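**Protein of interest**
===
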Amino acid sequence: MKRQRVNKASMGISPAKHSMLLATLLAASIFTAAPVNADDSRIEQFFNQVDINNYRGNYSIIDQIGNNNSATVNQSYSASYQRGNFSKIFQFGNFNTANIAQKGGNNFGVILQKGNAHEASITQAGDARELLKANVSQSGSNSYIQISQSGSGYRSINVEQNAFSGNARPVTVETY
């Protein structure tokens, strides 16, 4: 095998341009190493007894990338026949607020926020014999979504709001 030597001039990068790229890369790494303020995240999960045989429980995941985001999860189930609840909140941006409250069992709630100043709330009350599922997806800025559902039967609600102009109308969904 014959090795070839790469000439910087043949790649179109002059020594001055190379130094400038290195300086830009160094500055970018300094600014991205600054601490990120992911303010308020709170998870509360309650149950009366632990089912060790079936490993039933409440599960929650909160991912936050940005500044001044707030996420709250409150989940509970109380009967031994009930399955646990699952929630996930993902916030990418700044000044986003998300709340999930689930009572009973077998509830599934997901909030995805990309952008700034979004508000979303999911409230669900079910039991283990039914599945209540709610998904919220927000992108852009300044959008508001509220979902509330309760009762019997299998239900699934998906709401996606793209507020790229920043003037999205509020969305409220209630089922009982």
